[in-house]
Amino acid sequence: MRSYRQYCGLARALDVVGDRWTLLIIRELLIRGSSRYTDLRDGLPGIATNLLADRLNELEQAGLIQRSVASAGAALYELTPRGKELEDVIAALGRWAAPLMGRRSRGDAVRGHWLALPVQLYLADGAPNEPPVTLELRATGDSEPVTVEAANGAVRARPGRATLPDLVLAGPPEAIMSVLMGRVEIGAARRAGLQATGEPAVLQRLQRRAPNQ
Prior knowledge:
Blueprint: H1 9-17, H2 22-32, E1 35-36, H3 37-42, H4 49-61, E2 65-69, E3 75-79, H5 81-84, H6 87-96, H7 116-122, E4 133-139, E5 146-151, E6 154-159, E7 167-171, H8 173-180, H9 186-191, E8 195-198, H10 202-206
Parallel strand pairs: 4-7
Antiparallel strand pairs: 1-3, 2-3, 4-5, 5-6, 7-8
């Protein structure tokens, strides 16, 4: 692991998490929790197998992740308490990146579970005293949906299908996020390829003003 060799907090932090792919590995573990090597590799399209192994070893040595063995004998990786402290860093970078998230470039990879973090950043439960509501998000190009639950004033998202969702949004991820963030109406998003099934009024409970809007 290379070092900037500077007595500066930012430089010291980048010594640990500044290498390419490192924060994206943290992203995967924040979303999925305990993960197998194959889960991480699937969530990091483009990473070389040996580079992923190297980054995992470096993060383990730095005390940011820990490894255990599942009952089937496969290695499981998860964040340590020190690693979980990077959630605020990831969130701040996600908010800063909001103006950059326009239309996808040709060839951009898509993983449906990547929607989980921005959903928790940009949505809020506007009716905490009402019964819970559930959304299912299905991004074009990926078979794994994301379940979004709003209950008791909190919004939580996780990979996986919902049981009897109140609303399902399916289509290009940029169209899904534009609707969730209130930047476009469902009608306009449908013209961009979005499919909405269920009760659209659910969105009114979840939407709040998007960053830099």
